[in-house]
TrEMBL record, chains A, B:
It comes from the Bacteria. GO terms for molecular function: steroid dehydrogenase activity, acting on the CH-CH group of donors. It comes from Arthrobacter saudimassiliensis. Residues 14-464 form the FAD-dependent oxidoreductase 2 FAD-binding domain. PANTHER family: 3-OXOSTEROID 1-DEHYDROGENASE (PTHR43400:SF10), FUMARATE REDUCTASE (PTHR43400). This is Fumarate reductase flavoprotein subunit. Gene3D superfamilies: FAD/NAD(P)-binding domain, Succinate dehydrogenase/fumarate reductase flavoprotein, catalytic domain. Its cofactor is FAD. GO terms for biological process: steroid metabolic process. The lineage of its organism: Bacteria, Bacillati, Actinomycetota, Actinomycetes, Micrococcales. Keywords: FAD, Flavoprotein, Oxidoreductase. Pfam families: FAD_binding_2.
C-alpha cells in the first residue's frame, strides 16, 4: 500500500522492527545503539518468539573465552571450512565468511548484553546437554567433516537447566527495556507501506484497531519462517507436509509475503531443520537403520543432519537399534523418557518383532559387529570411541513414535519437528534483495524470515546465530538510513 | 514496463505465445482454433525447444485406441490414482483429475494434429524403446504403485526410431503453419508490458531491433524451465548444482522471471526430473546399489524415480551390479554402448575392485540371491519376473561415469541430466496466479515455465503431457480474453 493513501501515521519512529524473537531483539538493540528511535512490533502477547522455545545454542568459534577455558584452540578459517561443508550444498559463502570473522566480536556483544555462557564442556552427542555446560560438539568431530576442518566444539549453549532459549530471550528483552526501545505486543503487521520504491512503514492491527507506523529510516522484518503456514509449505517445501513444527505458532511467513508483495526475491524455500525423536546418546552407541535394516549415516554426526537424512532420504522410517550396555550407559536424564519399544534375545527375534525382512537387520549387525571388533567402520566412519560389537539382548526404538520431553512438546507425524530455512534473499547487511538483484530501499530482514547462512544443511546454533549476527547488521544498516 | 510508456506498438495480435516448444505450439493452435490472431515468438533460430530433444513420450490413458489395440483396459480413475501417488508428495490433485478425465480427448487432439502413435507394446523397463513401439510401461507395474492402482501401461511414445520429440514437434509445427499462425524466431522476450494490472504484451529483441508486441486478449508464457540458469538453480534447487541439463540451452527461466516481476507466485522450485546414466533393462535384471553396496529401491520402478532416488538420497553415488546372463539378455541396441567397467569372478573380488568395504556387496548379493531363489524380494518388492540369483562372473557399472547415446548428448557431472519442474503457479486454465492468490489478468503459462501436475515426483510423458494439455487450455483461455 502506498504512503500517499495513508491519511495520517499513528506512530513515527526511525527504525521499525517487526517480530520480537532473537533477530528482532538484536536488530532493535543495534539500531538503538546507533542512535535511532526504535519500535518493536510483536503479534504475540509478549516477546520471545520461537527463539524462546529453542535449546539456546549459538554457533560461535574462532577461539572464544569458553572454548579457551575448556582447552580448545580454534580459528575463523577452520570454522568457515566446517560451516561451508556442513550447511551445504549452496551454503552462503559470503555470509559464512563474515559470520566466522565476526564471531569473537559477536560473543562479546552477546555476553555484553547479559547472555550467560558457562565454561563447562559436554562431550557426547546430544540435542541439548542435560547439564548446564556451555560448550558442546555440533558435529565438528564426525566424518566426513574431520577430513575437511580441524575439529573444535562450537556449540555455545546459553547457561540453563534444560532448554536455554528462554534465558537468551530474557537477557535480550532486559537489554531492550534498558535501552528504551518501544515495544508493542499483540500487534500484527498486515502490509508494508511503500513510499515509491522505498519501504516507509507498515500497516498493523492491534485487536480491532488499525495502526499506521511510519519508519523514517528503515523497516527490519524479523518475523520468522513459514513452517506454521500449510499453504506455503505445500507450495515451497512439499516434503515437510504434515510434520510437527518447532515454533511459537507464529511462523506464518507473514514477513516473507509482505516483502514479496514489494518485489522481494526468496530463495532455497525447500530447506529445513529436521528435529527427529531420537536420543543422540543412544543412537551413537547403537545403530541408526531404515525400515529394511540398513545403516545410512555415521551415528556420531550432529543429530540435525541425522534428522535431515532420516526425512529427506528415508521418509522418517528409521529405527535406533542398541543393546543393553548401550542403553545403560546413557543416564536417564539424557534419555528423555525414551524406552525401547521392542526387545529380543537375538537379532533375528528383533527383526521379526519389528517386521523387517528376515536377515535384514541380522546382516547389518553382523557386518557392524565384525568391523567394530577391529575398531573400524569402513561403511560410515563412525569414530572409534563409539565402536563396540553389540551383544544380546537387543532393543529397537521406532523414531516415528516420537517422544515428549517436557520442554519440547510432542513431536508431530513421524516423530519429527521442523522449521524452515528458506526465506527472503538478503545481502550482508540484511538488505532485502528484489527480483532484479537490487536492494529494496529501506527494507531489511534477519532470522528465519531471511535465507541466511544455510544451503541445504543445518546445525543447531546457526539459526539463533545468524539471526542475532545479521539482525545486528540489519539494525545498524536500517539506522543508517 | 507500462503500456503508456510504449510510444507505438510494432505488432498487434490477439494472443501472443512466447516459446515454441510443445506447450507454446499447443497454446497457439488452440487460440487460433478459437478464432484468435496468434503470434508465436521463439528465441532460438527455429521452433522445437527442449520438446524436440525429448524422447517423445506422452502420458495418456483411460483406454486410448493404442491401449485397446495392445489388449489393455484402463480408466481415468486408475490413471488418476497412479499419478497422484507417483508424482507426489504434493502433486496437484485438481490438475491431475482434469488431465486424466481429458486424456482420451487429448489423444484425439494430438492424432488429429498429425502426431503418430503405433499400436505396438514394449514390455521391459527403458527410457525410450529401441523399437518404434508406441506403448510402454512408465512404472505402473512396479511396487508400491501396484498396491495403489490397477496397472496399465500409459507411456504413449510418438512413432520414431530413437527419440521421438522431433517427430512430435515436426507434426505440431506443420499444424502451426497450416493454421496460419505467425511465427517470429530469433526473437527474445525481454519483459512484459503491463496495462495497469493486465498483461498487455511484451518487449522483445530481434538481433539489434527492439520490438513492442501488443496482445489484445492475452499472453501465454511457454518459455520452459530454469535448468540453464545457474543463479536460479543455486537460489531454488541447490541439489541440482553443477549437473547436466536436458534442454536446448534455452531453459533460462526467462518467462518465470518476467511474470514474477508482474507479481506472479512460483511454487515447488526445488523439484526436478533426474535422468541418470543407467540402462533400465540392465538395472532391472541386476541390482542398483549405493557406494556401500546397499540396494535402495526396486529396480523395476520407472527409471526417472530411480534417478530421483539416486540424486536426492544417494548423491548419485550408485552402481548397477549384474551377472553375465543379465548382460547378455539385453540386446546391444538397448545398452546404449554401456560396458561394465568392472568384472570379477567373485562378489568379493568385485567389491575390492570397485573400492567398497569388504563384505558390503557380498552381504547384499547374498541376501538378494537367497530370496530370489524363492521368487521373493521382501526388501524392495521387485516383481517376480525379474528375480533370479546372480551367478559368477559378476560385473559393475558406475552410473557416475555416464554414457553418450547418439541422441542424448553426454551426461553431466555424476552421470545425470536434469530439468526443473517448479515454476509459475497456475490455475486449471493456465492462468498465472499472483502472490495474493488471484489471477494476473491476461497472463497465462504452460509447460515447464509453470508448476504443473508435479509434486516431488516425475514420470516421462508428464512434461510433454501437461505442456500440451494445459497449453491448449491456456491458449483457449487467452483467446477468450
Amino acid at each position: 500500500m502506498d504512503a500517499d493513501s495513508i491519511g495520517r501515521f499513528d506512530v513515527e519512529v526511525d527504525v521499525l522492527v517487526i517480530g520480537y524473537g532473537c533477530a528482532g531483539a538484536a536488530a532493535a538493540l543495534e539500531a538503538r545503539a546507533c542512535g535511532a528511535e526504535v519500535l518493536l512490533l510483536e503479534q504475540a502477547g509478549g516477546g520471545g518468539g520461537s527463539s524462546a522455545l529453542s535449546g539456546g545454542e549459538i554457533y560461535l568459534g574462532g577461539g572464544t573465552p569458553i572454548q579457551q577455558a575448556c582447552g580448545f584452540t580454534d580459528t575463523p578459517e577452520e570454522m568457515e571450512a566446517y560451516l561451508l561443508a556442513a550447511l551445504g550444498p549452496q551454503a552462503d559463502a559470503e555470509k559464512i565468511r563474515e559470520y566466522c570473522r565476526g564471531s569473537l566480536d559477536h560473543y562479546g556483544w552477546l555476553t555484553g548484553h547479559g547472555v550467560p555462557f558457562k565454561p563447562g564442556f559436554w562431550d557426547s552427542p546430544t540435542w541439548v546437554p542435560p547439564t548446564d555446560d556451555g560448550l558442546m560438539w555440533l558435529g565438528e568431530n564426525a566424518w566426513p567433516f574431520t577430513d575437511i576442518a580441524k575439529p573444535a566444539p562450537r556449540g555455545h549453549r546459553v547457561t540453563s537447566e534444560g532448554f536455554g532459549g528462554k534465558v537468551l530471550m530474557n537477557a535480550l528483552s532486559a537489554a531492550v527495556e534498558a535501552a528504551g526501545i518501544q515495544v508493542r505486543t499483540n500487534t500484527q503487521a498486515l502490509q508494508l507501506i511503500m513510499d515509491g520504491p522505498r519501504a516507509a512503514g507498515v500497516l498493523a492491527r492491534h485487536f480491532q484497531d488499525r495502526i499506521a507506523v511510519r519508519a523514517r529510516r528503515g523497516v527490519v522484518l524479523a518475523t520468522g519462517g513459514f513452517a506454521d503456514n500449510p499453504e506455503m509449505v505445500a507450495m515451497h517445501a512439499p516434503l515437510l507436509t504434515g510434520l510437527g513444527v518447532t515454533s511459537d505458532g507464529g511462523d506464518d511467513g507473514r514477513g516473507i509475503r509482505m516483502a514479496q508483495a514489494a518485489g522481494a526475491a526468496v530463495q532455497r524455500m525447500s530447506t529445513a531443520q529436521v528435529g527427529i525423536a531420537l536420543v543422540p546418546g543412544l543412537a551413537v552407541r547403537g545403530l541408526l537403520v531404515n525400515d529394511v535394516g540398513q545403516r545410512f549415516i555415521n551415528e556420531d554426526q550432529y543429530p540435525g543432519l541425522l534428522g535431515q537424512a532420516a526425512l529427506f532420504r528415508h521418509d522418517l522410517a528409521v529405527w535406533v537399534v542398541l543393546d543393553e550396555q548401550a542403553f545403560e550407559e546413557v543416564p536417564e536424564a539424557e534419555r528423555w523418557g525414551v524406552q525401547p519399544g521392542f526387545v529380543a534375545e537375538t537379532i533375528g527375534g528383533l527383526e521379526q518383532e519389528i517386521g523387517m525382512p528376515e536377515g535384514a537387520l541380522s546382516s547389518t549387525v553382523h557386518e557392524y559387529n565384525r568391523y567394530a571388533a577391529l575398531g573400524e567402520d569402513p561403511y560410515f566412519h563412525k569414530a572409534k570411541q563409539w565402536l563396540r560389537p553389540l551383544e544380546p539382548p537387543f532393543a529397537a526404538i521406532d523414531v516415528r513414535r516420537g517422544f515428549a520431553p517436557p520442554e519440547m512438546g510432542s513431536a508431530g507425524r513421524g516423530g519429527a519437528e521442523v522449521f524452515t530455512l528458506g526465506g527472503l534473499r538478503t545481502g550482508l547487511d540484511g538488505e532485502v534483495i528484489d527480483l532484479s538483484g537490487d536492494p529494496v530501499p529501506g527494507l531489511f530482514a534477519a532470522g528465519r524470515a531471511a535465507s541466511g547462512l544455510h544451503g541445504h544443511g543445518y546445525l543447531s546454533g546457526t539459526s539463533l546465530g545468524d539471526g542475532t549476527f545479521f539482525g545486528r547488521r540489519a539494525g545498524a544498516a536500517a539506522a543508517a538510513g
